[in-house]
UniProtKB/TrEMBL annotation, chain B:
Protein name listed in UniProt: Ion-translocating oxidoreductase complex subunit C
Binding site for [4Fe-4S] cluster 1: C375, C378, C381, C424
Gene Ontology terms describing biological process: electron transport chain
Entry EC number(s): 7.-.-.-
Family matches, as InterPro entries: 4Fe4S_Fe-S-bd, 4Fe4S_Fe_S_CS, Ion_transpt_RnfC/RsxC, Nuo51_FMN-bd, Nuo51_FMN-bd_sf, RnfC_N, Soluble_ligand-bd
General function of this protein: Part of a membrane-bound complex that couples electron transfer with translocation of ions across the membrane.
Binding site for [4Fe-4S] cluster 2: C385, C414, C417, C420
Membrane topology of the entry: Peripheral membrane protein
TrEMBL record, chain D:
Name of encoding gene: rnfB
Protein species of origin: Propionivibrio dicarboxylicus
Lineage: Bacteria, Pseudomonadati, Pseudomonadota, Betaproteobacteria, Rhodocyclales
Protein name stated in the entry: Ion-translocating oxidoreductase complex subunit B
UniProt-listed InterPro entries: 4Fe-4S_dom, 4Fe4S_Fe-S-bd, 4Fe4S_Fe_S_CS, Elect_transpt_cplx_RnfB/RsxB, RnfB/RsxB_Proteobac, RnfB_subfamily
Spans annotated as Hydrophobic: 1-23
Top-tier EC class: translocase
Automatic annotation (TrEMBL), chain E:
EC number: 7.-.-.-
Family: Belongs to the NqrDE/RnfAE family.
Organism: Propionivibrio dicarboxylicus
Name of the gene encoding the protein in the UniProt record: rnfA
Main location: membrane
Subcellular compartments: Cell inner membrane; Endomembrane system
The protein's name: Ion-translocating oxidoreductase complex subunit A
Membrane topology: Multi-pass membrane protein
From TrEMBL, chain F:
Organism, as annotated: Propionivibrio dicarboxylicus
TM helices/strands, residue ranges: 38-62, 68-86, 93-112, 124-147, 154-173, 179-201
Assembly information from the UniProt record: The complex is composed of six subunits: RnfA, RnfB, RnfC, RnfD, RnfE and RnfG.
The protein's name in its UniProt record: Ion-translocating oxidoreductase complex subunit E
Enzyme's top EC category: translocase
Described purpose of this protein according to its UniProt entry: Part of a membrane-bound complex that couples electron transfer with translocation of ions across the membrane.
The UniProt record lists the keyword Transmembrane helix: yes
């Protein structure tokens, strides 16, 4: 009467799953980064392309190494695309003509120290790409703040394939000749010299130039508009939700607007804050990293606002010209606490977790 | 759906839940078919929550269709009736429709093919009966909730009456993909359903009835509206198609705005929820005198040749259903219930029970389950959870065996709807984590209770040992005293004797 | 031992024992202080002396600089101690005093030595908190940068060029660290200006103004 | 000079006084923790933990010389409770919890010697001399005392059969990557 | 008022005792496994630091400085701190046994928490006024508590992560602290004036 | 407690830094170079030996209520004495170690040893314990300092002659000529990072050792002091 014994271990419901997967999400993000990346490649030429390659490959290599050591499936995990994305985002935030060892050390640091040591994907507490960026900035402030003005790959003076490789290997010859400050560090230097911003940022130095990428900066900083377009794609495809970008933008814009209104000579205007530095990249691609941001809406709003505000504070009063990476890391450190205290309300319970009063519910109609 | 419509849908829909592809058609549109009487029926004694029924027939006994074969035991219980006429072959065990593959008790019935019913006791106007009497008849008919929970309906009606329920919500949500048995009932028997609803309202004393139907079932909505047209107290209310709209708490919230407090029943806020098929069963019990011995079962899934709805006697084997509809291929997985909450079946030799809404035979493509990856904390599960829980945190705690901490996060409030596991891009078996934790916690609870009992027993034993010792000592003392007394008496006697002698 | 154990839990034992320990410690420290005081004072004196001599060419001063000081108030802040160097004949041939500026991570204290005409004889950073590897090249132990100041005066280079090269001046900056050298240059320049403003007072050799 | 010694001595004496007073004022009597732990233990004093009963086990746990997983009778449930009380995380992997066990008497072999009956800490064994003994399922904790004493091997420990309501969903296997 | 707020922020974040000044690391690493414990320790430490700071300031101001007993500073400060700590310990042991359980051996160790003595010494070194000293102490110990709570939150999450065996426990806690102080580097050079 | 055990405890099994994880503040703050680590370690060793001996000899007289204040007073006195004498008579060394010496007072490892060992053991054993604990501390600090220095600046024991005296000049090595340096190594993050990696290394050793001796047992909680 009971012929067949149990054939399989019990499988729990649901028996129907979404077609979504981690690799699909990560590849969508990569796709959203693509236009800005290609544009930046065009702007900065071969050295930037090589640096990007070195960074991505070393991030992948670091991940693969750790997976080998901990005896986990290398190919399957690399295939999830998260290490690729980490390397990519790191490359987007480096000076485009930085020497190869910057990219290589950064990529390794990101995946080994900031990610795999904590247990790999999903277990890291800090954004790996930003950890690596800050590590590089603190360790090698000179090459990490050596920006070059855009020199489109099609321009006659642009380094060719061979020269690009040389720049990658040996660094930029006569850096001072072509060095150019990024907008934020330019503003900071001028302020520290006692020049007011109204004068400093007029004419060729006007912030609007960064809109079209005509200003020195990292790959991800030069094409703010394309980055924003990528962000819009992420929002539309539902990969990210609006809470973090909106809150972060608000956290940055509101104090910036107030300060600028009070003293335009001392405080940068809103557009500059939003369009320069890593702000756009941070807004859509970095602060939104699932693993290191809170996962409730309220938490994400707090997190985003904190990122924006800290970015503003560090940019305005801090020792570093750029604050997105630090702001994101600081808020990463706060994320578990946010998650702990901002939990969603459970149906049938109040915010503190006590059951609702049936009589008040009965009275509703 | 057009772009604008999709957009509007996004904003109009509730913020919880998921929207899986519903796969309801073409099965929903196929006309109802009758399953031919199988060779054997297995009538399980436990087809409801509560105490199992107690068999009152003996092997070899002949029974008529609808005859009581096992009676209810205790307050929360339901009787079992013969689904057709025939001979009781045995009272034994059969594999339960449960993922564990463990057996449970069932009465084996060999149909005689006549399908002859016994005497039928019908009242002319059930509305003339007292509410309690309706509940009694519902109880006698063995009706249990057909929406999946299989709670004895009479107990629910009685509870509703006691708690002064004003609103009866009729659950025509049928939010599970693939299933369409409720849809079929509403399309084909709308008038009967409405009659059942009015009978239940009478039994509870409710003033109004709201029939919530997901808006992906326009035919059912139309049919029900037509049937309810004459009754002002019955309102048909389309609700957005979003899983798990059919869950009672979510439906109550959507239809009335009330939230059922976490430690309360719906009745505590003045609402009772019943399934449309339950209403139909109530109608049949009171108007036709037929106990709950058959139900509509959706047979669907990629491996099924002719998906559709079947009228099935309770106790038929899943294999009988599958043989009838035909299989395209060996199913990769058999599921009883819907794909979101249904339980996987160990094999096809398990009986259809009263709560079986569907039998799904999936092929490899339907269930292609990639291996789980680590949680990336994407928050989709939190977003989807209709209860507002943090599935990722609970799962992480459970993975580390911190079950109590998971309970603090709200594990007991989880309704196991599966939204979280459905949406998870890492394909984590979240529901299994929660089921594991819940059953493990219950087991721990049981062992704690047991330990308490042990402690009591040990204490009692200590008392007994002490008493025994004391009694022994007392007896010994008494004996000694007696012996001493005896000796004394003897001595006295001897002395007396000697004095006597001396004298 | 057993009586001790009895006593140890008594209330009075606590203040007495802790008091005794404190008293003995106090005694030890007092004794040590008395013994080491002269040594420490002498050592500190020597330290100052060597620092002062660093900013003057060797053999420049024939007197004991440490004892030949004058307090000059002016500029902003408290009066400055100015040490004066004399020739063997006793004429004032140079001065040494401390200037400070705000660097990247805090104040930088610099000792500068000038000749009578206000030409720099030397400069030494005596205290700073700049980042090692970046800003600490102002230390003479790490780099010869600070030696560039020798021979400079307010007029050479001209005031406009008293700045780092990045700001259009003559002094090198360090790659990636402009703030530190900028601060040093500014502090030294202010020192020169201070000297120019108070030259008469400093060179005034009437004995009543010299302290100590 | 004197000032130094005197002020330091006074400071020391004053603080010593304060501490002395505080120590008597705020003295904490006994160790309430052990009592709380004892209250949690099964209390059957079966000795499976290898200690002289539950109170000794509680004492050992409080002192840290025994782990919270020491009591096989209490199983995982007890271990988690103890862990919570002590504020430590418990590695439940340590517990060999192969499910609850019950004593079963093989009626053909039982000679009715009554030895098992005397050692059962929960009075789960019933019977009278020279009669077949029986185990009350609800009361037996599976401690095994009777098994050791049974001269004929009639008493054995059998796993409690799993039934539908007692079935526990297995924990999912961890993700590979 | 403004400058007090700036002082508070600077001491709490820019010159965070733990992350930047390297004071109080032992309790920072020891009592940060759970947020609740960290919060309790943070509050206990704040209490001790502010109280000890105030008492030490007075001792310095009214006793040591006037009598020229600077060389007794370390010993008298540490004596005061030790006494305050032990007193607090006894009170907590009596009043809140559960808190006592979590803070365990660390309560006595507050006495050797360098942050307490360090801050008291810094107060005198910088010649602060009483109010500034108290604000400074409060800001610093708040910074200590904030760092502890953030760190504890992260360690609670670490407890659920799949840390490689060689790193689980202390090693990963240090690496985490390293990344956290990397983040705090963002405040370096922050100048609110 | 025999000699072997005491020395093994101090140098490895209960190493203050690598196992007990105590005295973290000086460990992190001074290990920006090998020289600093060495200097701090030696100074601490001196104090540890003296304080252990002193406390061991007065332990019978100290009541539990005032135990900690008494120990701390004794340690502080010792430290101040050392501080003053160095200042007066070895001024050059003092200029280097002066700051570190004040830090020793609050190095909880010193009090930790007083509590855990000296208050229960004889004077000689306590002195030995102090010596080996101190040497273990010194070794750890020096190693951390060397790693940070090597990666940070490409040198080993830079300025040893300046700080510890000309006799130590032989230690100074410039390993990587032409090396640009890595600033983070002398900043706080690298202190934590290097120690974390060292601890992981130690754990790895122990895991290997455990696997060799008892192949099938579970992972031991290797770092006993990891609270
Ligand atoms: C996640 C979830 C989904 C449910 N879906 C349905 C459904 O689609 N239709 C339904 O009738 N009951 C559904 N139920 C059961 C209802 O909550 C409720 O028990 C039932 O409608 C009560 O009616 P009954 O007693 O007549 O079965 C669902 C329950 C849960 C927890
Ligand atoms: C950790 C760190 C420490 C720094 N320390 C100093 C320093 O001591 N002195 C300095 O001038 N700049 C220092 N900087 C660099 C300044 O932040 C600033 O970027 C630089 O001085 C600007 O100079 P530039 O115009 O040459 O780029 C430091 C930067 C970092 C990241
Ligand atoms: C793995 C690796 C790491 C390096 N790290 C650094 C570094 O930390 N700092 C640095 O300035 N150069 C670093 N370099 C680059 C070389 O040391 C570089 O050639 C050296 O700084 C010489 O530079 P110069 O030509 O500017 O003197 C590194 C190179 C490699 C291969
Ligand atoms: C929307 C989104 C944003 C991401 N941002 C980052 C990022 O800023 N830095 C990074 O290293 N990885 C990022 N990732 C990849 C991945 O989440 C990350 O490697 C994990 O933190 C590794 O555990 C992102 C992924 C997604 C889906
Ligand atoms: S949906 Fe899955 S991957 Fe996303 S947070 Fe939830 S459990 Fe993690
Ligand atoms: S299964 Fe539980 S946790 Fe998951 S979505 Fe449903 S109610 Fe929420
Ligand atoms: S094993 Fe458990 S029940 Fe038995 S004596 Fe020990 S503590 Fe008590
Ligand atoms: S195993 Fe034996 S002795 Fe132990 S409780 Fe059960 S019957 Fe009693
Ligand atoms: S050395 Fe332990 S707290 Fe600073």
């Amino acid at each position: 009467m009971n012929p067949s014994s149990i054939s399989l271990p019990p499988v729990a419901s649901p028996h129907h799953l979404t077609g979504n997967s981690i690799s699909r999400i990560m590849l969508t993000v990569c796709a959203a980064l693509m236009p800005a990346t290609l544009f930046a490649f065009w702007l900065y030429g071969w050295p930037a392309i090589f640096l990007w390659l070195v960074t991505v490959l070393s991030a992948l290599a670091g991940e693969a190494l750790c997976l080998r050591l901990s005896e986990r499936p290398v190919a399957a995990v690399l295939g999830d695309g998260s290490a690729l994305l980490t390397g990519w985002l790191l490359a987007m935030s480096l000076p485009p003509w930085a020497p190869w060892w910057i990219g290589a050390l950064g990529g390794l640091f990101a995946t080994v120290i900031a990610k795999q040591v904590f247990g790999g994907l999903g277990c890291n507490l800090f954004n790996p790409a930003m950890v690596a960026r800050v590590f590089l900035l603190i360790s090698f402030p000179v090459p990490m703040t050596a920006w070059v003005a855009p020199l489109p790959i099609t321009a006659a003076t642009a380094p060719g394939l061979h020269d690009g490789l040389m720049i990658l290997l040996n660094g930029v010859p006569q850096l001072d000749a072509i060095a150019s400050a990024s907008l934020l560090s330019f503003a900071k230097t001028e302020l520290s010299r006692g020049v007011d911003l109204v004068h400093a940022l007029s004419g060729a130095a006007a912030p609007a130039s960064s809109l079209i990428g005509a200003r020195a900066g990292s790959l991800g900083e030069t094409a703010s508009l394309l980055i924003a377009a990528g962000g819009a794609l992420l929002l539309i495809t539902g990969v990210i939700r609006w809470h973090i970008p909106a809150a972060m933008a608000a956290g940055l814009v509101v104090p910036a607007a107030i300060a600028h209104a009070v003293d335009p000579a001392r405080y940068l205007d809103v557009a500059t804050h939003l369009l320069s530095g890593g702000a756009t990249l941070g807004l859509f691609f970095i602060a939104t990293d699932y693993v290191t941001s809170p996962n409730t809406k309220a938490g994400q709003l707090v997190f985003g606002a904190g990122c924006g505000l800290l970015t503003f504070i560090i940019r305005t009063w801090g020792g570093y010209p750029e604050g997105v990476a630090f702001a994101v890391l600081l808020m990463n450190a706060l994320t578990p606490v946010i998650d702990r205290y901002l939990r969603p309300r459970i149906l049938g319970r109040d915010w503190r977790g006590a059951p609702l009063n049936p009589e008040t519910e009965r009275a509703k109609s | 759906m057009g772009l604008i419509e999709t957009f509007l849908h996004r904003f109009a829909a509730p913020r919880w839940g998921v929207h899986p592809d519903d796969h309801k058609r073409p099965a929903a549109d196929a006309p109802l078919r009758q399953l031919p009487l199988p060779e054997r029926l297995y009538l399980p004694l436990q087809q409801h929550v509560g105490q199992p029924a107690r068999p009152i027939v003996l092997p070899g006994q002949k029974v008529r269709k609808g005859q009581l074969v096992a009676e209810a035991q205790g307050r929360i219980s339901a009787p079992v009736h013969a689904s057709t006429s025939g001979t009781v072959a045995a009272i034994g065990e059969i594999t339960a429709p449960h993922p564990s593959g463990l057996p449970f008790s069932a009465i084996t019935l060999i149909p005689d093919g006549n399908d002859s019913a016994g005497d039928i006791d019908i009242v002319a106007d059930p509305f003339a009966l007292a509410p309690d009497e309706i509940a009694e008849r519902v109880a006698a008919a063995g009706i249990v909730g057909l929406g999946g929970a299989t709670f004895p309906s009479a107990a629910k009606l009685a509870l509703g009456k006691r708690s002064k329920v004003t609103t009866l919500i009729v659950n025509g949500g049928e939010c599970e993909p693939y299933l369409s048995c409720d849809d079929r009932i509403m399309r084909d028997h709308a008038a009967d359903v409405v009659d059942g609803i009015r009978l239940m309202m009478h039994a509870i004393g409710a003033r109004e009835a709201l029939v919530g139907i997901e808006d992906n079932k326009p035919e059912a909505i139309a049919a029900m509206r037509r049937a309810a047209a004459g009754f002002a107290e019955v309102t048909v209310r389309p609700v957005p198609a979003r899983y798990p709209m059919g869950s009672d708490r979510q439906l109550i919230q959507t239809l009335t705005g009330k939230e059922v407090p976490s430690d309360c029943r719906a009745a505590d806020v003045g609402v009772i929820v019943n399934n449309v098929s339950t209403a139909n069963a109530v109608h049949r019990a009171l108007r036709l005198g037929e106990p709950l011995i058959r139900r509509i079962v959706t047979v669907n899934g990629g491996a099924v040749w002719q998906p559709g709805n079947l009228m099935v006697p309770v106790g038929a084997l899943v294999s009988d259903l599958l043989d009838f509809v035909g299989l395209k291929s060996e199913p990769a997985r058999l599921v009883m219930g819907g794909p979101m909450m249904g339980s996987v079946l160990p094999h096809a030799q398990v009986p259809v029970v009263k709560g079986t809404a569907g039998v799904l035979a999936f092929n490899e493509d339907d269930i292609a389950t990639p291996p789980p990856s680590p949680c990336i904390r994407c928050g989709s599960c939190t977003q989807a959870c209709p209860v507002g829980l943090l599935p990722l945190e609970m799962a992480a705690l459970i993975r580390n065996d911190r079950l109590k901490d998971a309970a603090v996060l709200g594990l007991p409030d989880c309704i196991a709807c599966g939204c979280c596991a459905y949406i998870c891009p890492s394909h984590l078996p979240l529901v299994q984590y929660f089921s594991h934790a819940k059953s493990e916690l219950w087991a721990q609870e049981r062992s704690t209770l047991r330990m308490e009992a042990t402690r009591k027993l040990a204490a009692e034993r200590a008392v007994r040992l002490e008493r025994d010792a004391r009694e022994k000592a007392e007896t010994a003392a008494r004996r000694k005293a007696e012996r001493a007394a005896q000796k004394a008496a003897q001595a006295a006697a001897e002395a007396a004797l000697s004095t006597e002698n001396a004298a | 031992m057993s009586t001790l154990a009895l006593w140890r839990d008594k209330l009075a034992y606590q203040p007495v024992s802790l008091g005794i320990v404190a008293m003995l410690s106090g005694l030890a420290l007092v004794v040590a202080n008395t013994a080491t005081l002269p040594g420490i004072a002498a050592a500190e004196q020597r330290d100052l002396q060597t620092s002062l001599e660093q900013v003057l060419p060797s053999g420049f001063a024939s007197n004991d600089l440490v004892r030949d000081t004058i307090l000059v108030s002016g500029g902003d802040g408290p009066p400055r101690t100015v040490y004066r160097a004399r020739t063997a004949a006793g004429a004032i041939c140079g001065t040494v005093f401390q200037v400070s500026g705000r660097g990247y991570a805090g104040d930088i204290n610099i000792l500068i030595g000038l000749d009578r005409d206000g030409r720099l004889l030397g400069a030494r950073v005596i205290k700073h908190q700049e980042t090692p590897g970046l800003g600490d090249k102002i230390e003479s132990a790490k780099s010869r940068w600070i030696d560039d100041f020798a021979g400079k005066s307010l007029s050479s280079p001209p005031p406009a060029q008293w700045a780092v090269k990045k700001d259009g001046g003559v002094f090198d900056q360090f790659a990636g660290a402009t703030i530190t050298p900028r601060a040093v240059v500014k502090a030294v320049r202010q020192g020169l200006e201070f000297y120019a403003a108070h030259r008469a007072e400093i060179l005034n050799d009437s004995p009543k103004e010299s302290t100590r | 000079m004197f000032a130094a010694v005197i002020s330091l001595t006074l400071l020391g004496a004053l603080l010593g006084l304060g501490l002395g007073v505080a120590a008597t004022r705020f003295a904490v009597e006994g160790d309430p923790l052990v009592d709380e732990l004892i209250a949690l233990m099964p209390g059957s004093n079966c000795g499976q933990c290898g200690m002289a009963g539950c109170a000794a086990a509680a004492q050992a746990i409080a002192e840290g010389s025994a782990t919270v997983t020491v009591c096989p009778a209490g199983g995982k449930a007890l271990a988690t409770m103890l862990g919570e009380k002590l504020g430590i995380s418990v590695d439940l992997g340590d517990i060999v919890d192969d499910g609850p066990k019950l004593a079963v008497i093989a009626e053909e072999i039982c000679i009715g010697c009554c030895r098992c009956l005397k050692v059962c800490p929960t009075d789960a064994m019933i019977g009278a001399p020279k009669q077949i003994h029986n185990v009350i399922r609800e009361a037996c904790t599976g401690c095994g005392n009777c098994i050791e004493r049974c001269p004929t091997g009639a008493a054995t420990l059998q796993p409690v059969p799993v039934t539908l309501p007692h079935w526990v969903w297995p924990k999912p296997a961890p993700a590979l990557a | 008022m403004g400058e007090y707020i700036a002082l508070l922020i600077t001491t709490a974040f820019v010159n965070n005792v733990v992350m930047v000044k390297f004071l109080g690391l032992c309790p920072f690493l020891g009592v940060s496994k759970r947020i609740d414990g960290a919060l309790g320790m943070g509050m206990a430490t704040t209490f001790v630091i502010v109280l000890a700071g105030a008492v030490c300031w007075n001792i310095e101001h009214w006793l040591l400085a006037p009598l020229g007993l600077g060389y007794l500073r370390i010993i008298s400060f540490i004596l005061v701190i030790a006494a305050i700590v032990q007193f607090t310990e006894m009170v907590i042991h009596k009043m809140a046994p559960s808190l006592y359980q979590t803070l365990g051996i660390y309560l006595p160790l507050i006495a050797t928490n360098c942050a307490v003595l360090g801050l008291a010494l810094i107060n005198t070194q910088e010649g602060q006024s009483f109010v500034t000293a108290v604000i400074y102490d409060f800001g610093a110990s708040t910074g200590f508590s904030i760092a502890m709570v953030m760190f504890a939150g992260m360690r609670e999450r670490l407890a659920l992560a799949r840390i490689p065996a060689a790193f689980s426990g202390a090693p990963i806690a240090f690496i985490l602290a390293s990344l956290m102080s990397l983040a705090f580097m963002g405040f370096s050079g922050l100048n609110l004036s | 407690m025999n000699f072997r055990e005491i020395s093994r405890n101090g140098l490895w099994d209960q190493n203050i830094v690598l196992s007990q994880i105590l005295g973290m503040c000086p460990t992190m703050a001074v290990t920006t170079s090998g020289t600093n680590g060495l200097g701090m370690g030696l100074a601490t060793t001196a104090v540890l030996v003296c304080s252990n001996m002193l406390i061991s000899s007065v332990r019978a007289f100290v009541s539990p209520q005032v135990r900690i204040p008494v120990y701390i007073v004794l340690i502080a006195t010792l430290v101040t004495l050392v501080d003053m004498s160095l200042n007066a008579w070895m001024h050059d060394l003092y200029r280097v170690l002066g700051l570190f010496i004040a830090l020793i007072v609050v190095n909880c490892a010193v009090l930790g040893r007083a509590e855990a060992f000296a208050s229960r053991s004889g004077v000689l054993a306590s002195a030995l314990d102090g010596l080996f604990m101190g040497l273990g501390f010194t070794a750890s600090l020096t190693v951390i300092g060397l790693i940070r220095e090597l990666i940070g600046a490409g040198t080993l024991f830079a300025q040893a002659s300046l700080l510890l005296g000309p006799a130590f000049a032989f230690l100074e090595i410039k390993v990587l000529p032409n090396y640009g340096g890595m600033l983070m190594m002398i900043l706080p993050p690298a202190g934590f990072l290097v120690l974390g990696l060292l601890l992981a290394l130690r754990r790895l050793f122990e895991l290997r050792a455990a696997a060799r001796t008892t192949p099938a047992t579970a992972v031991p909680d290797a770092v006993a002091g990891c609270h």
